[in-house]
């Protein structure tokens, strides 16, 4: 409360007390008043008392007592002479003075307390405002800090997930490299390789393509060798097995891969034909890496995302590049093996003048027949190697017997028939050729058990050897020899049909003859005749 307001209150309280005393004096003391004039004269005195009584406390009390004494004198002698009036007026005077002083002091204390409370309240309001501001500022700072911490935590989680992802991929690549080094044939670890790579990179499809000569046109074509899918629903939807680069409009793709560059749907502008192919197979994103066996572009390996559009990063690109390098190195090693085997076969043909070109022909037919009979890639590789080395044991046969122009006598035949044993002894120490050994060692066995060297019978003869026996006899009969001219395919088919169940496996020979007819090397009528002969 300010000074102006306090002054008004003081005046009001003093006036109220003075008026009360005056009313009581007039009401009780009127019979003793000397006259009306005395009573009227008391009014100015009362006003003066009211004004000076504003000081409160002792000043107010003395002023009130003095005022009432003056009022008594003005009231006249009658009031002084009457004892009762004197006592009454004295009581009024004391009561008035005490009341005025008490009220004034109490009022000041209350005003002081109110002032203190108002000051405290203002201080509290100020402190509260300051505290609220600080709380808001601190809350905002904590919120910003929390956002920063949350963003940093998310970034660390993403970084940790990325490191775990890359670590998983590196571990997968290390496993692939280890398994590939253990394998004798590059095709053996491919199914597990594609599966591990697909799971590590979290894609729905991984494919391995090989470049093969296009038989109908110039150039090469892509041949799908292997495919892995995370779900059967994602299997090859176009029936894509072999496509010529020019047929699919993949010239740019071919050029880029042949130059050793990856093809990525994330960074490369793909041709409309590739986009159309991706759309038909519902591929959202694709990454293709070339495979080189030495300096020769062998084929490619690809990752495909079907369920979502992927942006291929360094992790996927590096992983695919590493796997392509591992495959390329292993394929190159295997091709060097094959060239070595072919060199051995060529060396044998240089000794055996009767069999020039024989090895290449029977190898081609054996691989084709094995494919038709449903052999897997690894088994076909064993058959190809076995076919290349089927007569390697003849290196142990003397030239005089090997190149004798006439028929061999019994003694010479005993030596000649030992060439499968020579082949076994030569190839057994070579670990990667163990699975190819059945053909060099057992292709002279006969279905009825009259063959050599072990006189095996029926299903006891290794299946690759039974398969190759058919191919070997066909090529021998349809080729010129010093002691006879080549037989016609029709005559050969008829002769071999008569040997079905004695020399040849009755389940394999019909498939072989049908294959030769499909290849255009056996007339359809001859095939029917051979079937009737059997």
Question: How is this fold's topology laid out?
Answer:
Layout: H1 3-29, H2 36-52, H3 57-75, H4 77-81, H5 83-182, H6 190-201, E1 205-213, E2 220-229, E3 242-244, H7 251-258, E4 263-264, H8 272-280, E5 285-293, E6 296-305, H9 314-351, H10 358-372, H11 377-388, H12 399-402, H13 410-416, H14 419-427, H15 438-442, H16 463-477, H17 489-498, H18 509-518, H19 524-533
Antiparallel strand pairs: 1-2, 1-6, 2-3, 4-5, 5-6
Helix pairs in contact: 1-2, 1-3, 1-5, 2-3, 3-5, 5-6, 5-9, 10-11, 10-16, 16-17, 17-19
Write up this protein:
There is one protein chain. This protein is an alpha+beta fold and about 525 residues long. It is about 60% helix and about 10% strand. It is built from 19 helices and six strands. It has helices spanning about 5-30, 35-50, 55-75, 75-80, 85-180, 190-200, 250-260, 270-280, 315-350, 360-370, 375-390, 400, 410-415, 420-425, 440, 465-475, 490-500, 510-520, 525-534, and strands spanning about 205-215, 220-230, 240-245, 265, 285-295, 295-305. The radius of gyration is 60 Å and the shape is rod-shaped.
């Amino acid at each position: 409360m300010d000074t102006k307001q306090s002054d008004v209150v003081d005046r009001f309280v003093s006036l109220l007390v003075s008026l009360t005393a005056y009313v009581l004096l007039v009401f009780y003391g009127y019979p003793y008043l000397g006259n009306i004039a005395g009573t009227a004269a008391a009014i100015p005195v009362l006003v003066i008392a009211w004004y000076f009584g504003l000081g409160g406390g002792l000043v107010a009390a003395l002023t009130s007592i003095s005022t009432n004494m003056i009022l008594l004198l003005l009231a006249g002698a009658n009031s002084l002479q009457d004892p009762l009036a004197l006592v009454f007026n004295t009581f009024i005077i004391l009561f008035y003075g005490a009341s005025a002083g008490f009220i004034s002091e109490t009022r000041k204390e209350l005003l002081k307390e109110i002032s203190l409370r108002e000051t405290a309240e203002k201080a509290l309001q100020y402190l509260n405002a300051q505290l609220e501001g600080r709380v808001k500022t601190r809350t905002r700072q904590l919120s910003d800090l929390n956002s920063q911490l949350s963003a940093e935590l998310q970034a660390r989680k993403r970084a940790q997930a990325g490191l775990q992802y890359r670590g998983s991929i590196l571990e997968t690549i290390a496993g692939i490299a280890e398994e590939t080094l253990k394998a004798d044939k590059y095709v053996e670890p491919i199914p597990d390789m594609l599966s591990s790579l697909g799971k590590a990179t979290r894609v729905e499809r991984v494919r391995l393509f090989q470049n093969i000569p296009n038989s109908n046109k110039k150039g090469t074509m892509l041949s799908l060798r292997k495919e892995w899918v995370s779900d059967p629903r994602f299997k090859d939807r176009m029936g894509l097995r072999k496509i010529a680069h020019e047929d699919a409009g993949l010239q740019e793709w071919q050029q880029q891969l042949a130059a050793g560059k990856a093809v990525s749907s994330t960074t490369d502008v793909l041709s409309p034909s590739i986009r159309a192919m991706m759309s038909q197979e519902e591929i959202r994103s694709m990454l293709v890496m070339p495979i080189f066996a030495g300096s020769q572009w062998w084929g490619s390996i690809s990752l495909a995302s079907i369920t979502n559009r992927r942006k291929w990063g360094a992790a996927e690109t590096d992983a695919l590049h590493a796997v392509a390098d591992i495959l390329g190195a292993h394929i190159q090693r295997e091709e060097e093996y094959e060239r070595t085997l072919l060199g051995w076969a060529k060396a044998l043909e240089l000794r055996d003048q009767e069999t020039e070109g024989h090895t290449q022909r029977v190898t081609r037919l054996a691989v084709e027949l094995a494919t038709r009979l449903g052999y897997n890639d690894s088994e076909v590789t064993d058959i190809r190697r076995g076919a290349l080395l089927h007569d390697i044991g003849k290196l142990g046969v003397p030239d005089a017997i090997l190149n004798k122009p006439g028929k061999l006598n019994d003694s010479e035949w005993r030596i000649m028939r030992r060439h499968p044993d020579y082949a076994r002894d030569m190839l057994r120490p070579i670990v990667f050729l163990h699975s190819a050994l059945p053909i060099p060692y057992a292709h002279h066995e006969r279905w009825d058990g009259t063959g050599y060297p072990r006189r095996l019978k029926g299903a006891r003869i290794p299946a690759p050897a039974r398969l190759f026996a058919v191919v070997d006899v066909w090529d021998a009969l349809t080729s010129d020899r010093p002691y006879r001219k080549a037989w016609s395919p029709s005559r050969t088919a008829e002769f071999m049909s008569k040997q079905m169940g004695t020399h040849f496996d009755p389940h394999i020979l019909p498939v072989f003859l049908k294959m030769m007819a499909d290849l255009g090397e056996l007339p359809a009528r001859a095939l029917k005749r051979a079937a009737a002969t059997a």
